[in-house]
Write a structure and sequence with these properties.
It is built from 13 helices and twelve strands. It has 323 residues and is an alpha+beta fold.
Length: 323
């Protein structure tokens, strides 16, 4: 009889592999506790509607779903943020703000496997809820950088690229693009590097039929700095917010790690403000970590108005980088 194989995209953790995993988890735990975060966890599967209503089309395509014996449609969790928002919403105003929680969940996504990407994986998640000011964004980016430094990496090894959904929305609306079309445009822009130029331009033409507006978008994504964006439109409030973020990170002594990049969009539908991603300097791997603002998600799940920002880092891509 042929020996059964593990499911595609999963891993067996033999003792030597488990040792590496525990070292990584210990490092993550130490970073989070040093920043004053509390550990939490949630079910490994949730009602399907938790994801289909709020996370967007990209996640919906990657869900592992099943029907339980009561006829309810469930999904293995592909990410942790919806569960976190659901938990906070369920407590109303009982939880003391700000909420500073972290988790290291096992997650599942049915997606194309490649270097640094599997279908079952672990993530570090760090989230701050209840602070609207950009100080929370700066602290989380600082924590992400320290998470990498605690693993032995330096500014020679990785960088943090920062942008803003608010900035993109303000620019796109000024070009005459409707707000209703923005989620689909963000989803396409997030996949720009994975799509051929002809296919990308064809899909963009479908989303933005007006050629002048489309050219404005392409010109925006050629901008290399905040000053280039100011030259396009100097009156945008989001520019001041990004400038304050970079000033705070400079005060953390982390300006060597951080740079503005208008091309950072993030594909999930619930992002509302500043977004960021960590990449190795050679750009040989997919994003090491990523996150941003999701100020409306808790309220959408029936909770009180709760500003929030968070990030996640995957163990698979970090393992490749550590090699």
């Amino acid at each position: 009889m042929q020996t059964p194989a593990a499911p595609r995209g999963t891993r067996d953790f033999f003792p030597e592999n488990a040792v590496f995993r525990e070292k990584l988890f210990n490092s993550w735990n130490n970073t989070c506790r040093r920043y004053g975060f509390q550990l939490f966890d949630a079910p490994m599967f949730e009602q399907l509607s938790l994801y289909t209503q709020k996370s967007g089309e990209e996640i919906e395509k990657q869900l592992y779903t099943f029907e339980d014996k009561g006829g309810r449609v469930m999904a293995l969790r592909p990410e942790m943020t919806p569960s976190l928002a659901r938990m906070v919403a369920s407590k109303g105003n009982e939880l003391k703000r700000p909420i500073r929680w972290y988790s290291i969940p096992r997650l599942f996504r049915y997606e194309k496997m490649q270097k640094g990407r599997l279908r079952e994986f672990f993530q570090l998640n760090m989230d701050i809820l209840g602070i609207r000011e950009v100080t929370a964004d700066a602290e989380l980016i600082a924590a992400a950088i320290d998470m990498m430094r605690d693993l032995g990496f330096s500014s020679d090894d990785f960088s943090v690229l920062v942008s803003s959904r608010t900035l993109l929305e303000q620019l796109f609306l000024s070009y005459g693009i409707s707000k209703e079309s923005l989620p689909a445009i963000y989803g396409l822009l997030d996949k720009k590097n994975k799509t051929g130029d002809d296919e990308f331009e064809s899909q963009m033409a479908g989303l933005i039929p007006d050629g002048s507006a489309r050219n404005d978008v392409f010109a925006t994504f050629r901008a290399g700095s905040l000053d280039d964006i100011r030259a396009i439109n100097p009156s945008l409030s989001s520019l001041d917010e990004l400038s304050r973020l970079l000033e705070y990170l400079d005060l953390y002594g982390m300006n060597d790690f951080v740079q503005f990049d208008i091309g950072i969009v993030r594909g999930l539908a619930y992002y509302t403000g500043i977004v960021f991603e960590l990449f190795d300097r050679k750009r040989s791997l997919r994003a090491i970590a990523g996150g941003g603002r999701y100020d409306t998600l808790v309220k959408k799940y029936g909770g009180p108005d709760t500003p929030a920002v968070g990030f996640a880092a995957g163990d698979v891509v970090l393992g490749e980088l550590l090699k």
